[in-house]
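Progress against Task 2.4 (sequence-to-structure conversion) is shown through the following example record, which the project officer requested during the mid-term review.
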Amino acid sequence: MKILLSGGGTGGHVYPALALMRRIQELNPTAEFLYVGTEKGLENRIVKEYGIPFASVEIKGFKRSLSLDTVKTIRMFISSIKQAKKIIKNFQPDIVIGTGGYVCAPIVYAASKLGVPSIIHEQNSVAGITNKFLARYVTKIAICFEEVRNDFAKYPEKVCFTGNPRAQEVSNVQKKAALEEYNLDSEKPTVLIFGGSRGAKRINDAFVEALPLLANKDYQVLMATGDIHFETIQSQLTKIKNEKFNVSVVSYIPNMPEVFSTVSLVVSRSGATTLAELTALGLPSVLIPSPYVTNDHQTKNAESLVNKNAAKLINESELTGEKLVQTLDDLMLNPNTRQEMARNAKKMGMPDASDRIIEVINKIVKK
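Structure tokens generated for the chain above:
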């Protein structure tokens, strides 16, 4: 089987595609893959690190207001469709799968015009503009939140609930003493705080405000700041170290799934991939949605967990060091509450998400 994958702009679009690819390779070692993205996109670097054949098209996202730049973007989109058709004709895939980001638009649209079966994967509880556009052209629409069905109401027969492939990948991670490399005790109750791979300034600021209190708790804290903020926060940390100090600060955590499997509580943004991982593992969380995303979809993602008592939500506008410590204490000092949240999160998890998508693929690909 030959599979063309496309998705870009953020890791949340790229990593699910790679997780699905790895699962397909486990089941079908002879499967061939081509990943299509943009030359300047994050996907270029990530995908090439995995040694996957990569092709690119020139495209950029549409702005919501009409301008000369919008006209240029439309011309680029038309040109990118021609590029996409050429790539598809050369590779001759059995199926094209788009996992989000504007780069998917010309690829999946071209597949439709060439008669190649296609799937779009919508990770969020609110559909992105690209997937809304592509919905009429694709064969199937895979979703991760029931709430997003409304955005594809015109095509109910195409929609299938699969979950996020990262969930299946993370659910298979073996628990190990991952916290020792961060100078923490893997047997001690631990809070993990992070704001994404680049960090989140408001979360980092609240953490700095909370540091004097967190350093004396009976639970320990692992904080990932992002590269840009690390040195500033590390200097704050040095000022308050004491004998009972139980806080570790790093810029980035490369082995996040292993760390997830060891901690007691996670404080993070509410991106779709992160929530897929948390629910697959049954982890309680405190979610601080990013207010800078399209259609405020991270708040809606978070609410899907909060409404089922699997997470707590703090709006960024209300986030302070005091509020953060109070929320952590409420959960870390009440293990029964935390355990109930963990059970509810686990019920929402989709540990067979990749297999569900593969089942959809097998149904629509002509034998």
